[in-house]
Amino acid sequence: MDFGSDNVSGVHDAILEALREANTGTAVAYGHDEWTARAVGRLRDVFECDLSAYLVVTGTAANALALAACCPPHGAVVCHHEAHITTDECGAPEMFTGGAKLMGVRGAAGKLTTAGVAGMLATLGRGEHEQRPSVLSLSQATELGTVYTAAEVADLAELARAHRLHVHMDGARFANAVVRLQCTPAEITWKSGVDVLSFGATKNGALGVEAVVFFDPGLTDDFLYRRKRAGHLVSKGRYLGAQMLAYLHDDLWRTNARHANAMADRLAAGLRLVPGVRLPLPVEANEVFAIVPRAVHETLRAEGARYLEWPGEGPGTDGPAADETFIRLLTSFRSTEAEVRAFLAAAATAAGQPVAPASAD
After folding, report:
1. Do 74 and 33 fall into the same domain?
2. pTM assigned to the model
3. Which of 83, 173, 237, 308 could bridge to 31 as Cys pair (CB 3.0-4.6 Å)?
């Protein structure tokens, strides 16, 4: 019953097989190999446009380097106050931009709104005495497991354009958002005004590869140098290309995300039936946030369940009482129905609810 993260679930067999197949003979180094070239071509197909894409090893590198391409050292990145770039990346965006400031804006359910962003921008106006907002960064899906619709992205991008801001999207869980929205990747990126996307694969079945995808060619001039200087130009680049190519082949990236989302839906549906448990946030990707009685939490831990005790006071609309715990459960492409049933049975038993026998499926 490990719902601690979608990073704990290993590598999809198809991606491991692709790595094995790539591990023969020789190949041109530093990303000039055929696997990488084919992967970039496949990304163009997926996003239905011409684009520039660069492979890196981690999501932190993808975000920090993408932001560095958009934001000068004297600039600022406007983001949600709980965005991954400001809470979980150890100052990497600030370091790679050369000192740009991250400006956090509050918003319900982990999402920015045009009113919230406009309100923050309206407080600025001291010229060179403060850093100039240069980028609007959106997380898709958000840190609280919610997703932006194409219309919401477009509205925020229009506001950004009016203030001469580029638009970055942190897509560590982009696949989960796409399958939930039942839209095309193009509809929630460049067609809605996104300039650069950090396209995640590692959380969704890859060993370790992300793509920095530029829809605005004017932002790519120095990116090859930025990636090299940051230590993310991998000499044996074919192994990154092979991963991305397998990830995109036959829509594996969507299939994996669809399964993870379905397991999150099952968890959420079951938890809503457990006495004393409430879900303060919608389940729109592969993350389930729940407020559970402290006794249930302690029993689940004793039963070996793994999940994150979410820090802070709660999502804003609801919060845990003194005898409650706010938790996050993350599902993945490898989460199973049996694992979900076991977790729900343990939660129900801890809450004093009789558990029906499991069906033989």
Report:
1. yes
2. 0.94
3. 237
